[in-house]
Amino acid sequence: MEKRFLAIDIGGTTTKFALLTAEGEILSQGERATEAEQGGPHIVERIKALIREQELPLEGICISTAGIVDEEAGEIIHAGPQIPNYKGTEWKKLVEAEFSIPCEVENDVNCAGLGEAYFGAAKGKKSVLLLTIGTGIGGCFLQNGEIQHGTSHAAMEVGYMQIPGGEFQNLAATSALVRRVASRKKESPEEWNGKRILFGVEEGDRICVEELDRFCDTLSLGMSNLCYAFNPEIFILGGGIMARKDILLPKIREHLQEHLIPLIFEHTELDCATMGNQAGFLGAFVHFQKKQAERLGKE
After folding, report:
1. Fewer Cβ in 10 A, N or C end of the chain?
2. Are residues 68 and 129 both part of a single domain?
3. pLDDT tens-digit readout, 169-190
4. Terminal alpha carbon distance of the chain
C-alpha cells in the first residue's frame, strides 16, 4: 500500500480533513462540525475518533488549527474564547502517545499560507504575505517557502495591529463591514453578511457602496503598513468575502496605491487565495513534511 497521510484542518466552525499521498495528491476528503463551543478536550476526542476511523497504516497526522501554536512542541499556547479550554492542548504528544504515528501541528493561517505557496496563488514566489479576512484578520509571512514564526510563535498576529481608530481586525474584518452596514440600516447585524452587502453594491445600494469603499480603504491601510515592513513579492487575500475578487480587488488595489510609494506598489503583486477549503489541510501536509525532515536532520 502506498504511503498515506491524514491532514486535518480544525476551524472554529468546521473541521476539514483529507487522506493524501506522499506527493500531496488527495485520495479522499470530508468535513464535520468542530463543535468548538464544547471546548478543547471535546475537540481532542473528536479528532481521535476521526483518526480511529482511518484504515491503517498512516505515515503521519498533519494538523492545522486555530490558536497560536508552538510548532516545535505541537502545542496550543494561546487560544481565543471561541474555543474554551484549548490553551495547553498538547496535540503532538497526545496523538503520538495514543496512535504511535508521527504528528506535526501548525497555526491555521500559517497552513493556509503554505497551501497557497506550494499549491496555489503564490506558487513559485519567494516572498509571500497572506491575510485571511473574516470574523477577524489573521496573517502569515513566508520567505523562501518558510513560515516566519517570531520569538514567541506569534509573528503576524496582525489582527491586533493598531491603525487609526483601533485594532486592525475591529475595523477591517468582514464582521466590521457587516456591523457598519447594519448600523446605518438600523437593522440587526444577524440580518447581514458579506454576500448580501456585495449584492447590494451590485444593485447600487448607496450605504453598501459607501461602506464597502470604506472597508477596502481601511483594509488597504493595514496592508500598506505590512508592505512597508516586509516588501513582499505577492500579497494574497483569503476569506469568504474574497470570493468576489472581481468587485474587491480593483477597489483594494486603488486604495493600496494611495497608501504606498510607487517603488513598493509597482513591485507588489496582489491576488486572492485560490485553494479554498483545501488550503489548510494541504498546508498542514507541507508543514508535516518540512518539520519531520528538520527533526531528522537534528538527530
Report:
1. C
2. no
3. 999 999 999 999 999 999 999 9
4. 28
- What stretches in the chain show pLDDT beneath 70? 299
- Residue 31 belongs to domain with CATH number: 3.30.420.40
pTM over 0.90: yes
**3-class state of residue 163 by DSSP:** strand
Pair 136, 44 in one domain? no
Q: What does each C-alpha distance from 115 to 43, 48, 257, 296 come to in angstroms? A: 23, 24, 27, 23
Distances 167 to 33, 219, 223, 237 between C-alpha atoms, Å: 30, 11, 13, 18
Grid cell for residue 74:
505541537
Query: Which pLDDT does position 298 carry in this prediction?
Result: 75
121-148, pLDDT tens digit by residue?
Answer: 999 999 999 999 998 999 999 999 999 9
78 and 129 inside one domain: no
Q: Do the Cβ atoms of 233 and 198 come closer than 8 Å? A: no
Cell, residue 213 = 469603499
CB 30 within 8 A of CB 74: no
Measure Cα distances from 250 to 199, 244, 292 in Å: 17, 11, 41
